[in-house]
Structure formats: structure tokens, C-alpha cells
Amino acid sequence: MPRHDENLPGNTVLLQGTLDMAHPEVGCPRADSRYAIVRRIQQISRDALEIRQGSLYPALYRLENRGWLKSEWKTTEGGREAKFYSLTKTGKQQLKAETAEWKRLCDAISLVLETVD
User: Fold this and answer.
1) Burial of 69 per CB tally in 10 Å (0-12, 13-18, 19+)
2) Cα–Cα distance between 88 and 107 in angstroms, integer?
3) pTM for the structure as a whole
4) How far apart are CA 91 and CA 62, in angstroms?
5) Of the ranges 7-21, 32-46, 59-73, 79-93, which one carries the lowest mean pLDDT score?
6) What does DSSP assign to residue 4?
7) SS3 of residue 21 by DSSP
8) HSE of 67 in the Cβ direction (CA atoms, 13 Å)?
């Protein structure tokens, strides 16, 4: 079911399950804290996607339980303890498969929309 927030730029709709794919895309290059993940997704999307902490935690939990993410507690530069997440080998393979599936879906939707007058 789509999630819609009237306050987001361009009335962005975030489909359920999209967040599960969005985090690994962000976390690939390095381990990140939850706060950094949210900031990065917003930055990359040019503030088109607004991820609330309450949505991110369950997604990270699901990905970790599936073995796609690993986490560890570290001390941040500010001296606080934070949980940092990074992709596992299985997570990288899953991300590759889901990215290909997402591209196929976008291409299919584009073909349909091109026929609309």
C-alpha cells in the first residue's frame, strides 16, 4: 500500500518495501548510523524522500534478521554510542537482484505511461 505525505516535495509516494531497498543502496560504501542513513537518503533524493526514524528502525531490523545487514555498536565522533550498519555479502547479492528487478519494473511502467495521451 502506498504511503503518501502531502508535506513532501512533489507529493512523493514511498511504496512499502522501498525503504528496505533504499538503505542498502546508501550503506554500501561504508557503515552508517541510523541518523546518517536518514540524512543520506534525504540528501541523495534532494529531499524528495523523507524517512522517519519510526519507519527506518523496522526496515533495518528486517534486513538484519534476513542476514542482509550486519550491525555493531561504535562511538561516534561526538562521543555517543550508536549502532552502525553495513551490507553483508548476501545483502550485496540481494541488492543487485532487487536493483535489477526495480529497473525492470520502472521500464515496464514507463512503457505503459508512454501510451497514455
Assistant:
1) buried
2) 28
3) 0.67
4) 12
5) 7-21
6) E
7) helix
8) 4
Note the pLDDT of residue 43: 87
DSSP labels, 23-92: HHHHHSSS-EEHHHHHHHHHHHTTTS----HHHHHHHHHHHHHTTSEEEEEEE-TTS-EEEEEEE-HHHH
User: 82 forms bridges with which residues in the sheet?
Assistant: 74
CA distance 112 to 17: 22
Cα 16 to Cα 2: distance, rounded to the nearest angstrom: 6
Distance between CA 56 and CA 35 in Å, rounded? 10
Strand partners, 74: 82
Residue 82 in contact with residue 74, Cβ under 8 Å?
yes
Q: Select from 64, 53, 76, 72 the least CA-distant residue to 24.
A: 64
